[in-house]
Design goal:
This protein is of the alpha/beta class and 242 residues long. It is built from 9 helices and 7 strands, in the order ααβαβααβαβαβββαα. It has a 5-stranded parallel sheet with strand order 2-1-3-4-5, with helices on both faces. Strands 6-7 form a two-stranded antiparallel ribbon. Strand 6 and strand 7 form a beta hairpin. Helix 1 crosses helix 8. The longest helix is centred in the C-terminal third of the chain and has 22 residues. The N and C termini lie far apart (42 Å). The relative contact order is 0.17.
């Protein structure tokens, strides 16, 4: 079972590395998202394939900011056809009709998650957001996208701010014995940690300022119904997934 320990060690070491190497980028993300929150704007989160899980991860989440809006559609996800979602994310023109549903505008933030950062969907999503006046934050692997680009435009080149997860090409980090294969993907765990750290810091700043802190409470905690219902009422017309 040593590989379990090795996986934990690799993941925690990677997170510790990112805490330091991405400190300035995360600080800038806190400032951008905090400004959006103070101005009653929204943070849209978009990803395809497994990256879409990070959009769901921060949506209607205990301790999470209610200004987050996941961008979700079955063709970009896995549950109605995993292999087809890979094909769809590479087809130009697929995401614009989806994004038009969300009324993304000036002052909003579009956080685009893509490990490889080169497929049509995340790149076109970033372009759409910029044209709509939103600020673009990319959560991606800069080294992975550089190795996969082959002359294509990369998500990181279109973003106002890049959060580099520093994950190597292929995502999986554990070499399997007697094989050239690797297992143990880390992008979801790393991405979720980065986003929760940033959103928690935003919430802490808002609380310190004494203003409204639009944070959901776990449904089984005291007072949760009143708090969550108030936030749902406020944001339901601007978040189609509430």
């Amino acid at each position: 079972m040593s590989i379990i320990n090795d996986y934990f060690d690799r993941l925690t070491a990677h997170l510790t590395q990112l805490r330091d190497s991405q400190a300035e980028a995360m600080k800038q993300a806190v400032a951008m998202i905090g400004e959006a929150a103070r101005n009653d704007k929204r943070v849209f989160v978009f990803g395809t394939g497994h990256s879409h899980m990070l959009a769901e991860e921060v949506h209607y989440r205990a301790g999470g900011l209610a200004i987050t809006v996941p961008v979700l559609s079955a063709f970009t996800m896995l549950h109605e056809g995993a292999s087809s979602s890979t094909k769809f994310e590479r087809i130009s023109g697929m995401v614009q009709p989806l994004l038009q549903r969300y009324d993304i505008g000036a002052g909003d933030i579009l956080l685009v998650v893509s490990n490889s950062g080169v497929n049509a969907a995340p790149v076109e999503a970033a372009r759409f957001g910029r044209e709509a006046g939103a600020k673009i934050i990319a959560l991606t692997s800069v080294s992975y996208s550089a190795s996969a680009a082959n002359g294509r435009v990369r998500l990181s080149e279109l973003a106002d701010l890049v959060l580099d997860n520093e994950i190597p090409a292929g995502d999986a980090m554990m070499q399997l014995p007697n094989s050239g294969m690797k297992a143990g993907a880390v992008s979801t765990a790393v991405g979720a940690t980065i986003l929760h750290a940033i959103f928690t810091a935003v919430a802490a700043e808002l609380a310190a300022e004494g203003g409204e802190v639009p944070v959901y409470r776990s449904a089984n905690m005291p007072g949760a119904t009143e708090i969550n219902d108030r936030l749902i009422e406020k944001y339901k017309t601007r978040n189609p997934h509430l």
